[in-house]
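Long-time lurker. I teach an intro course on protein structure, and each term I like to show students one example going from raw sequence to a predicted 3D structure in token notation. This year I'd like something fresh instead of my usual example. Would anyone be willing to generate the tokens for the chain below so I can use it in lecture? Attribution to the forum is fine with me.
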Amino acid sequence: MTDRALFQFSRQWKRLLKFISLFGLCVVLIIGCNNQQQTNSNNATGTGDRVRMGTTLKPRTLDPADSYELAGLGIIYNLGDSLYTYELGTTNLKPKLATAMPTISEDGLTYTIPLREGVAFHDGTAFNAEAMAFSLERFIENGGKPSFLLADIVQEIQATGEYELTITLKQPFAALPALLAFPGACAVSPAVYEKGTGQFNPNEFVGTGPYQLTDFTSDKVRLDPFPDYWGEQPANEGVDMQIYASNPANLFNAFRSQGIDVAYHSFDPNQIKSLRQGANDGKWQAIASSGTAVNYLMLNTQSPPLDQIEVRRAMALMIDRALLNERVLQGQAEPIYSLIPTSFEAYEPVFQSRYGNGKFDQAKQKLQEAGYSVDNPASLEIWHPSGSTIRSLVASTLSAIAKQELDGILQLEPRTVEAASFFSNVSKGIYSAALIDWYPDFLDADNYIHPFLSCSQGSQEKGCQQGGAKTQGSFYYNEQMNQLIDKQRRLQDSEKRQEIFAEIQELLAEDVPYVPLWQSIDYAFAQNNVQGVMINPSQNFPFWTIEKSANN
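-- Reply from a regular --
Happy to contribute to a lecture. Here you go:
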């Protein structure tokens, strides 16, 4: 072999050795990386996992200007930011996209709100006062289902600085900050959305929240953390939501077989009872929260025999809430004695002090005062939506109580109709009495009073012809009530508002256009390797607090 050939051979051999060495190193690194990944997977912490959620609630739309159901609003709450929100687990307001509570003019008509800087939308568009004004104007002008919430009270919205928003009202409304915490009043990107009647984007969402929407189909929703979120990042790597539309049995079975990590809304009472027992046995966790949804009996004050106040008071006296909770609700509700829930400082148990529970002798006396007897009984239909098993049982129980305890002086006949017809008929005065529930739009005592008891047009003789009382089917009219409602709406002093709410509730118990029955207890269920699950009083469910560990 020549010297040149020997040199070339030596050079090629060195290259081969170098290649073999590099190849061996890569193999070692790959094996090491795989082993490390396997180790990390086996020792995963909560921040390294996606959360599998299950629900029966199917969103109709994710456009915040048109979403007015819990299914959509619960997701929007996790995708978007509003000016104000509630401290988790409470009804206490705090700023979110705002940096402070509003400055309010002396006449109560002008609210000036400072805004957060350094916030970006999911598409990269910068957030500022112009974007917030656009979002709220769009909420009003596009005419979606919840548009009336702001349209009825807001006169004008202006960006009075790059990070300053000014809202002018048509009339004073002390609960405006609470209303601005409504999830649908969140900021949306002006680069994606349009203003104009009916201009909705039902299948997408581009806001500023901790999650961004990456998939939305008829049975699945996928949320991924937004990496440029201005606030704290979620405690998980995203949420995969499975929708078991109107089929709690599938949701029930999926949770019990650990096919999902967290189940929320909706189970029937027997399923809740079974899951609570499983939690007591240590199989999983049950998370309970006193809700803000109220259930009540509407009494049409213009329809015989309920046009007589003695009959309405007899209805209040015969109600046995403890019995209803035990027999019908299986202990999964909380008796309530006002239209305002117990979680509010304004709550006064006026029906408890005035009527108690199951005062049958007093109920019979009131009916007799109204001219009714065994030979001349008062007859009354109680209506409810046909899809509600609970209300059907409540109506049947009330009918049985009247028959057994009131000696036939009052005859209650349960009646049912499909839900769409039921709710459209309530405001037409077709029903003398009806079993209904109320989910608040915003967490202020006003939202349990004004929609039920206010009347903008009416008289004592003809009842309410326009206003909340007509909409809710009671047709109740009392000028003193109207004045009290208007007065509390104008006051910024919370203590004085509480005093007026106390007067309002006393008048409610005296006139009895509604009988409060129970407020909901909301339940969620989580596997044992899940932490941070909570239910807000608003029923909005924060996903970003949920963490998963690797093992049960």
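Some talking points for your students: The chain has a mean pLDDT of 91. The two ends are 70 Å apart (CA to CA).
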